[in-house]
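Researcher: Structure for this, please.
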Amino acid sequence: MSESYEKKDVSVRALVLGAFATVLLIIAFIVGLRDYFIFTTEKTKTLEIVDHPNPELIEILKKDSLMLNGYAVIDNEKGIYKIPVEQAMKSVLKDYAK
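Model: Predicted structure, token format:
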């Protein structure tokens, strides 16, 4: 029985290119997973904030809306009243148009 051996050397160029491609593939996979993690984390946090708004913020927004859009008597003797901002702007424009 004759013993045989490999008569051709391993291609160093092919080995280096294969290793380089493998490293690039691993880096791309890691970057993709990191981006996916960041995207899903931000999406989850955003949904939590949107689905569960802060009750204090809701109360402040209601007060601000009432202040900007509501009517009230400030001083009845002097005839000072609080009116909505839009109506006040229209009234001022009408006064200056005369």
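Researcher: Any notable elements?
Model: The chain has three helices and two strands. The helical segments are 12-51, 55-69, 85-97.
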